[in-house]
Amino acid sequence: MRRVLCGILLRFRASSLDGAAEQAMLYAQGGASVISVLTEPARFKGSLDDMLDVALKVETLGTARRPAVLRKDFIFDTYQVLEARAYGADSLLLIVAILTLDELTTLLTVVAMSRPDSILLLALSGVFTREDALKFEECGAHGVLVGEMLMRCHNVKDMIQELKGVSSHTQGKTLVKTCGITDAETALVAAKHGANLIGIIFVPKSPRHVDLDTAADIVQVVRKFGERSSRVTIELDTFPSSSPSSMDTISTWFQSHAKKLTAASARTPLVVGVFQNQSVEYMNHVAETVGLDLIQLHGDEGFEVCRDLVVPAIRVVHLPGFHTGGSVNVEAIKENVQAGGTGAVFDWNVAASFDQAGIPCLMAGGLTPLNVARAVQVATPLGVDVSSGLEDGTPGVKNHMKVQQFIRNVVQPPLSSLDSVEEDNSCDDRK
Fold first, then answer.
1. Cβ atoms within 10 A of the Cβ of 126, count?
2. I need a labelling partner for 237 at 20 to 30 A (CA). Which of 50, 55, 171, 343 fits?
3. What burial letters (b/e) apply to 167-178, b meaning 16+ CB within 10 Å?
4. Domain membership flag for residue 1
5. 68 near 35, Cβ under 8 Å?
6. Which of 164, 188, 222 is the last residue of a domain?
7. Are 154 and 289 in the same domain?
8. pTM here?
9. End position of a domain, from candidates 139, 164, 189
10. GO molecular function, one example (predicted)?
């Protein structure tokens, strides 16, 4: 006997049909497992009578063949749950976006009173992050349905593990930041292929500098791809005091925020505005005007600046004298030696020392599609940041094929690129 792999749920708006019951019967005879009936009268012209007609009609098929009837409406009161059952519904839709946690829990509890223990409660929509899954679990759900978000994800295994709560940075999830993006088309290419962070530069002297109108276009394209209309909110804790009690305190703080950044950028890319020694007022103006999700401080600004910014900040640390190796004190490096986007090669072992000290970092410097897989294996950074390595010589003009290859080689590194890791820890393939 051939095993049925899935059930089919069909929905229709009764007001658009001459006979709701007759249409439902066609669906049922075609093998539908669930029939969803709109009962909201004001906006969708549905009615409870339509649902009752559907329920009575499909009941004639007998228990073995009868599909379940689902009430689709704005449910917010326990009376509506009892009402749905009285009019023949086997199940109903709860819209999480319009309910408080207490309201959702109450409605699920009412439903649970009449549900056999063998029937599992699943959340069928609105799951994008581990936090979403936990919210439903707290309300009594036994599982969650994840659909289109996984289809957009370029590392399905990592995303599934993260939703289950067993994924972490050490399991190989490496963030990708494509920086120096100067047009919306390139931003969309990066987003479609799995970039977590899209960097646009507001430093006037940079050849990759963009104006506010262009930046706004980039933000809108990224938001549309991520199916959102506003910036992503990341709740951050206050940075430890200027004299923290131990390195462990700093490490714990950075790791906590790294996890939040990873979770926030898992479903939709975040747009990062890059600034260098510019006023807080100007940075906040740009962030609010174009809709930045994050700010990257690329000059010699102090950490205290972050407290006055309207969005969270990434602080660049420029390392003096470490382009060819040597030890590094991860507690004391603040000096600026490079302005970025130069293609200068960074010693990957230095980034590895940060990882060993429990300080997650985004590694930049001389990365290209050809060497990034080896760099990630050597340094195991939180993420990689690339700009000139995606260009063919003209600053700001990205080669879309290189964008695709770079991201793919981070997410799914080719085995051939990992063969000589021990022999080559800082490959110079810059343009």
1. 14
2. 171
3. bebeebbbbbbb
4. no
5. yes
6. 164
7. no
8. 0.59
9. 164
10. indole-3-glycerol-phosphate synthase activity
The dihedral built from the CA positions of residue 377, 378, 382 and 386, taken in this order, carries a sign that is negative
Q: How far apart are CA 159 and CA 177, in angstroms?
A: 18
Q: Which residues have a Cβ under 8 Å from the Cβ of 134 and sit 6 or more positions away?
A: 165
Residues 6+ positions from 85 with CB-CB distance below 8 Å: 114
Strand-pairing partners, residue 198, are: 178, 271
346 and 204: one domain? Answer: yes
3-state secondary structure of 178: strand
Q: Which residue matches tokens 């049909």?
A: 17
Kindly state whether residue 84 falls inside one of the protein's structural domains: yes
**Residue 405 confidence (pLDDT) above 90:** yes
> Is residue 348 situated within a structural domain?
yes
What is the C-alpha separation between 347 and 271, in angstroms, rounded? 27
- Residue 267 is which amino acid? R
- pLDDT of 176 reads 96
Cα angle: 71, vertex 75, 78; to 5 degrees: 105
- Sequence letter at residue 137: E
Mean pLDDT taken over the chain: 78
CA 299 to chain centre: 28
Question: What CATH code is carried by the domain that includes residue 402?
Answer: 3.20.20.70
Tokens representing residue 160 in the block? 């599934």
Considering the domain architecture, whether residues 62 and 193 belong to the same structural domain is answered as no
Domain that holds residue 106: 9-164
* DSSP codes, 117-177: TTSPPEE-S---SHHHHHHHHHTT-SEE---HHHHH-S-HHHHHHHHHT---GGGT--EEE
Q: Counting Cβ atoms within 10 Å, is residue 242 exposed (0-12), middle (13-18) or buried (19+)?
A: exposed
For position 412, what pLDDT does the model report? 79
Burial code (b: 16+ CB inside 10 Å, e: under 16) for 78-87 equals eebbebbeeb
Alpha-carbon distance of 343 to 223, in angstroms, equals 29
How far is Cα 136 from Cα 120, in angstroms, rounded to an integer?
A: 13
Based on the domain organization, do 271 and 127 belong to the same domain?
Answer: no
Number of domains in the chain: 2
